[in-house]
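cache lookup: miss for this entity combination. No prior model stored, computing from scratch. Input as submitted by user K.M.:
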Amino acid sequence: MTSSIIRVTHLSKSFGDIRAVDDLSFSVNQGCVYGFLGQNGAGKSTTIRMLLTLVEPTDGDIEIFGMNLRSHRRDILRRVGAVIERPDLYKYLSGYENLSLFARMSGMKVSRRRIMDQLQQVGLADRADSRVKTYSLGMKQRLGIAIALVNDPDLVILDEPSNGLDPQGIADIRNLILELSRNQQKTVLVSSHLLSEIELIASDILIVDRGKKIMEGPVGELFDPSRMVVEIQAVFPEKARQVMVSSDWKDRLQKQRGDTFIFELGREEIPVFNRYLAQQGVDVLAIRPRHSLEDYFLSLTSANQHVDTFTN
Amino acid sequence: MWILLQIELFKIFRRPRTYISFAAIASMILIIQLGLKFDGKSYLQLLMSGISDSFYVPYELILNGYLVAFVILNTLLIHVPLLVALVAGDMVAGEANMGTLRLLVTRPVSRTRLMLAKFTASVIYTVMLLVWMAFLALLLSMLFFGTNDMIIARNDVMEQIGRNDILWRYFAAFGYAAVALSTVAALAFLLSVFAENSIGPIVSTISIVIVLTILSEMKIPLYDNTVKPYLFTSHMLAWKGFFYSKASGDGQAIPGSVENLPAILRSLAVLLSYIALFVTTAIVVFRKKDILS
Amino acid sequence: MQTLKLYGLYLFCLLIRPEAAFCQDATDLVQKVKAKLDQVNDYQADGTMKTNVSFLKVPQAQVKVYFRKPDNFRIRNDQGISLVPKGAVSISLNNLMKGRFTALDMGTETADGQKVRVIKLLPADDNGEIVLSTLYVDEGRLLILKARTTTRESGTYEVDMYYGKYAAYALPDRIVFTFNTKDYKLPKGITFDYDDGSRKNTENKVAETKGRVEIIYHDYLINKGVPDALFH
């Protein structure tokens, strides 16, 4: 039943000497919310731009809806909607004009009612005739989404949709994605550098770093029980830290946040480490295993800058 | 294609910036008209100083609407490329700068068509500028100054054209000027493809036009037969050729004739080739361009 | 003083030419010609004016020519503009012969296969615009065929006259007016001209060139009165 909407094979893109995307292969199944994760500069945007024919791949193939992107560009784009990075629009035109302009470019017959319906859905109906210049960032983002959805696409691509939005805006986007996926059976590819965003909505994820694939798969299968991330909260963090860094366990310490230490441990190591701390007179307040993409990412990449990027 | 063109025109004519050009042209024309209305005679005396020794010069008849329009075109057509570049140089670079280019290119529309629509829209804008200019320079001057025969000064000869022999020459001249300015539009359009903001292509277009115009107008034998015939700026003034009549054997201007039509057509062909070259290059480059803005 | 000068000239005639009586004949002839011209108090005529001047490219123009005694002369172009050469007005024949003058007979010449008498007119007024005129007169018909006039300010003019229907009134069907012009050059920096690539022969031009204006008369209305307004 599940067929691939997007199939990317050995995709590469170089800008001069810089290899932005390096031999990337992945596929996105119909109806899923596909999370595309990576730091800024990991190659997410370049990949998305290749999916949307903005950037020509150096190497590799892209198939969307079972058609080759290069040879069936227009047939494919007719069924795709996208918001790419910042929601940039014609500031000197109204929201209504922006939306109707892009709808017409998508080859649609445009009626005022249909455009107004779309604006209604994203809560902009009452500002339809104001110039976009006067919109807040959140309003522009919603208008961008209305533009992406105006041609009723089967595939929706959202590149960093939560960037710069307030918590309410982020929640709105999250609900919208779930609505598109669950109730409208659309396939959604959403990229972010925030794991916390993606883990709440994605059914599958792809993680890239420096242009290369690190991991791909359903969210549920991504946790490796042999490498768990554990939070240990101590009563006297100073003393605890001294004990920890002078022990054999010091390499397992990922990060300290106030009185909480984050360790990467195997499932059976947790009681051993706990016993060791007790023996050394460290009073442990709590030990909590963490099950999130964020922690998962930590366990995959031990480099500290990743930890900083993904947990802040 | 028609829809794309409509959309591009809609974008051009909904921008306040577009109307700056129209306002600029109107004010320049009105300033010239006012100046000539009040002090046209001194201007004519300067022009006619070479012949006023031998002839009675009826200045008040010579200063008529047709001549005023000619003076305006002469002055203005040197500056209008700037206004054309203002819009044509913005066509691609401006969208890249605003960030709307990526939205355009992800529509199910071929890049070639998009570019053709954009260039056509710039040409239509150019033509509308000219129509606006024709309306103000010609029609308004005809109303303010009346009509009569037109006497114009060339470098070494004065041409007189009968009043019934003039209007078609203006239409031909405006038609030619449209092609000449479209060449500037095509250049600005081409440069626009390479830039991510519109200042670059606008300034470079103007610089190129200025440098080449100077080259075209310099009377240096070294350039005369080598570079000059190939510069598009050498051919941009050919609209004036429509106001030069043939002379009969005994030195009379022949009404309805054009002194050197083949030369004008050759100039026209050069300009059209440049337009084709610029636009084709722009399309080829744009088709391969990675949109990173 | 004036009389003395005339007398001197008369003497000069006698000295140079033994047939001194010719001086008197010349004056007679001029008086006769003048008398013939005097039949016409005024006229208006339609004409076609052709201008042939190196630096002017002007289409053939339909003009009206008005004359009224003693010396009102005007070329008008009501449909357009005609540049009228300076001097063309003062060459009106009546103008040449107005006031007092001395006529000198210079013998005969053949012009256009026709024998003509050559007469030089010296105006009595030293300060007048006309310094000297030479008339070539058809004695039989009492018509001036050619007049060459040297003026104080505007150089030398030549008028050739060809008669037909109105010969009885001494009015020409066609006149050709030839005059000297300076070469014309547009003041620098006025305009960018269109260079169509054709070679122009600028080196061989002499600064002083001849211009020609020709008027072919179609219809004369003679002695029907011409209103004042037309001369202003």
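stored under new cache key. The two ends of chain B are 25 Å apart (CA to CA).
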